[in-house]
Design goal:
63% of the residues lie in helices and 1% in strands. The protein has 408 residues and is an all-alpha fold. It has a domain at 162-295. A two-stranded antiparallel ribbon has the order 1-2. The protein starts with a helix and ends in a 42-residue tail after the last strand. The chain crosses the membrane at residues 36-56, 77-97, 103-123, 135-154, 174-196, 203-231, 243-265, 277-296, 302-322.
């Protein structure tokens, strides 16, 4: 009986095993499709946001000499930039609902690459090909490394997907790995805040670490809010749960404080340093938060994790090289820059500033490119005109020294 029932039992179990095997590849392909959708939305959002910010910056530069400080409100360029900025932020926000947190956060390098390319395209100086390549070689290398790092991130990113229901988010919120991570983060944040406020330690690393710790909580709550909205749109209402509004309030509060510390950092340090160091610290903190809260790397093999880490390092290096090539702001320039004045761009052909002659005469109007000159200029000298006194053949000194006696 046992021998006779054995083949029939195997035949009965065969369709079930076949069905189980056929379902698994479909689930994997669907999850990779979600990763691709989220990555494309994030890239599109960062690209559009970068274009929008450059449009608004261009509008402010064009109206720099206007007496009305709010004249940019009446320009189409500024409003177009605002519309594109909202569209880009919506794209980045919606990307968190599809792909894992650890995959979306490093893709912000796209905005740095886009800003570098836009800056090179719209640069006003005209360079020779060799000089142009030598000047922007770091930017080109950095853009290439950032693209390679982005490709590795998308290819070997984590493939963990779960529905962002209120039950799942609550379960993650009270899990012991995230509670331990939150305890360590709160202690580190309080120590940094103490040194920053009480000891006046205004180092860029301290300020950007505060921004990164707040940003890690911001992206965790953003993914929760975006995921619950997506699940609600798909038919399962999640907006009536208290955890949704808790995450929404935490998202807004951490974003506001993060913007406050960023504004303080921008007043003390160069924007290029803030971009590179802030990207590295914020990405590292956000990936750590995603790995502990959403368990992004659970079930991933060692090869995928190592290749993902390699992609992050390559993207970090690319962003560092791009921001390294930016010009540092000069606090004082001893010449009249005509191309910085609105409406004066076509005064001369090459867009070069009007420089002093600096050839023993005090005259303006020599159109020379003095980029190769030293930063400290020698002061211009005025010719000394000697007055003629007495006879024509005798020259008098250019000045008279009056000697006073001791009695006077």
């Amino acid at each position: 009986m046992e021998g006779g029932n054995s083949p029939s039992l195997q035949l009965q179990q065969l369709p079930l095993a076949t069905a189980a095997v056929s379902v698994q590849p479909h689930t994997d392909s669907f999850s990779y499709k979600e990763n691709l959708i989220g990555a494309l939305l994030a890239i599109f959002g960062h690209l559009v946001s970068s274009i929008a910010l450059n449009l608004q910056k261009y509008s402010h530069i064009r109206l720099a000499g206007s007496k009305d400080p709010r004249a940019y409100f009446r320009t189409k360029t500024w409003w177009s930039g605002l519309f594109l900025l909202v569209l880009g932020e919506l794209g980045v926000f919606s990307s968190y609902a599809f792909a894992p947190l650890s995959l979306i956060v490093p893709l912000s390098a796209v905005s740095v690459v886009a800003s570098a390319i836009i800056g090179i395209i719209f640069v006003k100086e005209k360079w020779k090909p060799k000089e142009f390549l030598r000047r922007y070689v770091l930017s080109f290398v950095g853009c290439g490394l950032a693209v390679v790092g982005t490709y590795l991130l998308v290819t070997f990113g984590p493939n963990s997907h779960e529905k962002m229901t209120a039950e799942n988010i609550t379960r993650h919120l009270v899990s012991w790995p995230f509670l331990l991570y939150m305890l360590v983060e709160i202690i580190v944040f309080c120590l940094l805040l103490y040194f920053y406020k009480e000891r006046n330690a205004n180092y860029i690393v301290i300020i950007l670490l505060l921004v990164a710790l707040l940003g890690s909580m911001t992206v965790v709550t953003v993914k929760a809010v975006a995921g619950m909205i997506l699940v609600s749109i798909q038919g399962t209402l999640q907006l009536d749960s208290p955890i949704f509004y808790i995450m929404l309030v935490c998202m807004i509060a951490t974003a506001i404080y993060q913007a406050t510390f960023l504004a303080q950092a921008s007043q003390l340090y160069d924007s290029a340093q803030i971009s590179s160091i802030g990207y590295i610290l914020s990405t590292t903190a956000a990936i750590s938060a995603g790995a502990t809260f959403y368990l992004d790397f659970m079930g991933e093999d060692v090869l995928h994790i190592c290749m993902f880490a390699l992609g992050c390092l390559i993207a970090f290096l690319g962003v560092f090289l791009i921001t390294r090539n930016r010009k540092k702001p000069v606090p004082f320039e001893p010449y009249i820059s005509m191309d910085a004045m609105p409406g004066m761009q076509n005064m001369h052909d090459k867009g070069i500033a009007v420089q002093p002659d600096l050839k023993a005469s005090f005259s303006y109007g020599a159109l020379e490119n003095n980029d190769s000159m030293p930063e400290i200029y020698t002061p211009a000298t005025l010719p000394i005109v000697q007055e003629q006194h007495g006879s024509k053949g005798v020259s008098a000194p250019p000045y008279r020294v009056l000697e006073h006696s001791k009695k006077e």
